[in-house]
Design goal:
heterodimer, A: 321 residues, alpha/beta, B: 7-stranded antiparallel beta sheet, 3-stranded antiparallel beta sheet, binds FE2/S2 (inorganic) cluster
Chain lengths: 321, 346
């Protein structure tokens, strides 16, 4: 299979700052055709030409899945990050032509659920926006528990409060409001599924609490994309392509491979889907495993690496690419 | 394309046959002179204009008669079409996929006019015209899955994806090779495939499942599978085994060329956008041995494949008892010459 899903040419329709950190971008198909319908929780990969470096960042679609005229994503500016979100915030303007991928869903609703219990932290709200559209159109039962730093920094807080006053519960850090998770999980009817998207700590907390309360793993869903981290530059030898490439400080190994025309399959570009898994043939040094895919054994044995998020420090790394 | 839809039967007097043009476009499944079970998936991309691989959903000269046969099967046994409640959205997905594909690929036969949620569908070959609201079941005479698959050749299985597995939870199955929707509904991928011999040890299903879970929107896949049946019977269901099973005994050295059919399944896989489910259309193509051997390359190759097929596969595919007669018949069309690689006639 080729890498990623088919590309779509889009035009930026609007750029709307929502608060100091968060901006919404809306796209239309460039020739005026319909965009593909999608399912709640899906993401697209947005391609950026960041001063010569090609970046491809995944963002959850947050618009109504039934709206095939436009897609929206919401991007939080990360000043420490590698620049993808900075690029979106400072360079992307209405009218610009961009390339995105056909939607992929790695955080799908379980449609057999009797009730959908959603737990969002910060920008983790975005996949729930499209899921809520989907659930309302089929009149399904859902509840959203949303933790924000403050009213001012809670994206879509107003919109959600207006549209779903009965389904929404908000927890504001600056007011010391706290989600009582164990109680919440205990009180759920049989057939409830819980979904969590937010910072890693929050995801771990929800998964552990659910496990302690004897929830089956199959009823607990989480979206855990890590944006690739910057780090020190390093070199990698590619066994099949028979060359050595270097990975920049602000580049991921996957991006470096793509920049030298080596095709690697991917879907999430965030260490979660497993598509980019690559065999390590020689490793004299340490792999910085930043993924959520490999098992502990695989990590310790240094036989696999996930190039979309993981890095290397040491003398020599040879991979099967 | 200039096709006259045939008026023919797949039961009782069995008047089914293929025209010369249809024989040439038959999806012959053997790309070399031997056969080994494998998953052999490839992208479902358009190849070879006029072939059955040209469009997402192939419509051929048997269309109208096949749909009539399906309606008869459903009259006798409505459980051949089922959908668990959470699969309705996937049914709409399938309806949309088929209507938009057919209207695009066969504009002289099918028309789809859309104004927001108000849809207007015209199917000229079947004389159907329907205005309905997309997403509102009460505006169609059947549920979306049943509505559209009463107008589309092939069986359809809808698979929900969860827990890293696929669950067979809706389908329209009236032309199946010996399996039952009513029996299998609700099963996951492994339960559903449990009776296949040989392949098990190869971990083939593990790999196939992984492949299917990763099929994405916009990148459908396909493979071919095959078996043989006595008579051009579409409905070889376990429910009706008492009716068709004994027909195998009617094959003689004299009638084998006319009675035995190679039955090829074109299996395709699409990710459905709104439900994130998978649809697995299984399209059945039938060809009589005497039609098949009119293509010299296929006559030679099919003889070699059937002659050399391992015993357990011939048993599994259900023609072990008739194999000697089939091989004897086919041997007359194998002059020992080399055959070119690939499935095409020449
Ligand atoms: S692309 Fe998904 S894990 Fe690397």
């Amino acid at each position: 299979m080729t890498a990623g899903t088919p590309k779509i040419n889009v035009t930026v329709e609007s750029v709307t700052p929502l608060n100091a950190l968060i901006t919404r971008f809306t796209f239309r198909e460039s020739c005026g055709k319909d965009l593909p319908a999608f399912s709640g929780g899906a993401h697209v990969v947005v391609e950026m030409d960041d001063h010569g470096t090609k970046r491809m960042n995944p963002y959850s679609l947050m618009s109504d899945p039934n709206d095939t005229k436009r897609y929206s994503i919401t991007v939080r500016r990360d000043d420490e990050g590698r620049g993808g979100s900075l690029y979106m915030h400072s360079h992307v303007k209405a009218g610009m032509e961009m390339v995105i991928s056909t939607p992929v869903n790695l955080f799908s609703l379980d449609l057999t659920a009797k009730k959908h219990l959603m737990i969002a932290g910060g920008i983790g709200i975005t996949p729930f926006m499209s899921q809520i559209h989907q659930l309302t159109s089929t009149r399904a039962h859902f509840e959203l528990h949303y933790s924000v730093r403050s009213d001012a920094l809670g994206a879509y807080l107003q919109e959600l409060t207006q549209s779903y006053p009965k389904n929404l519960h908000v927890y504001r850090d600056d007011q010391d409001e706290q989600l009582k998770l164990a109680e919440l999980l205990n009180g759920q009817p049989v057939g409830t599924h819980v979904y969590v998207c937010g910072p890693k700590g929050m995801i771990d907390w929800v998964r552990e609490t659910a496990r302690e309360a004897d929830w089956p793993d199959s009823s607990v869903h989480f979206e855990e994309f890590t944006a690739p981290k910057s780090g020190n530059a390093f070199e990698v030898t590619l066994h099949q392509s028979n060359k050595t490439i270097s990975v920049d400080r602000h580049q991921s190994l996957l991006e470096a491979l793509e920049a030298s025309s080596v095709e690697v399959p991917y879907l999430c570009r965030g260490g979660a889907c497993g598509q980019c898994e690559t065999n390590v043939l020689e490793c004299d040094g340490n792999i910085e495993h930043n993924d959520h895919w490999l098992t502990d054994d695989q990590r310790l044995s240094k036989t696999k690496i996930m190039p979309c998020v993981s890095r290397f420090a040491g003398k020599k790394l040879t991979i099967e690419r | 394309m200039n096709i006259t839809f045939k008026d023919e039967t797949f039961r009782d007097d069995y008047t089914f046959s293929n025209s010369e043009e249809q024989i040439k476009r038959f999806p012959f499944p053997f790309h070399e002179d031997s056969y080994m079970y494998s998953v052999n998936m490839e992208p479902h991309a358009a190849v070879r204009p006029g072939s059955v691989f040209e469009n997402d959903f192939d419509v051929d000269e048997h269309y109208v008669s096949e749909m009539r046969d399906r309606a008869k099967v459903l009259d006798e046994d409505p459980l051949r079409c089922q959908s668990l409640p959470h699969m309705t959205l996937a049914g709409w997905d399938l309806l949309e996929l088929i209507m938009t594909s057919k209207a695009k690929d066969y504009p002289h036969w099918f028309e789809l006019h859309r104004d927001g949620k108000n849809w207007h569908w015209i199917n000229h070959p079947l004389n159907i015209e329907q205005k309905f609201i997309f997403g509102d079941e009460t505006t169609l005479p059947y549920g979306p899955l049943e509505y559209i698959t009463r107008q589309t050749q092939g069986d359809f299985v809808l698979l929900d994806q969860r827990e890293e597995n696929l669950w067979l939870e809706a389908g329209m199955v009236t032309t199946q090779a010996d399996w039952s929707l009513d029996f299998d509904i609700g099963m996951n991928f492994f339960e559903w495939h449990a009776p296949v011999p040989l392949a098990h040890e190869m971990g083939i299903f593990q790999r196939a499942l992984k492949f299917l879970l990763n099929i994405q929107q916009g990148t459908p896949a396909r493979r071919l599978n095959w078996t043989m049946t006595a008579n051009p019977l579409l409905d070889t269901s376990p429910e009706n085994y008492h009716k068709w099973g004994k027909q195998k005994l009617e094959v003689t050295r004299e009638n084998v060329g006319n009675k035995m059919h190679l039955r090829v399944e074109l299996q395709t896989f699409f990710r459905l956008p709104r439900s994130n489910a998978l649809v697995f259309p299984i399209r059945c193509y039938l060809i009589k041995l005497e039609e098949l051997v009119t293509i010299p390359k296929w006559g030679r190759r099919f003889h070699r494949v059937i002659r050399d097929l391992p015993e357990e596969l011939a048993t599994y595919k259900g023609f072990i008892d008739n194999r000697p007669k089939i091989v004897e018949y086919l041997s007359k069309y194998d002059d020992g010459q080399d055959t070119s690689l690939g499935i095409w006639p020449e």
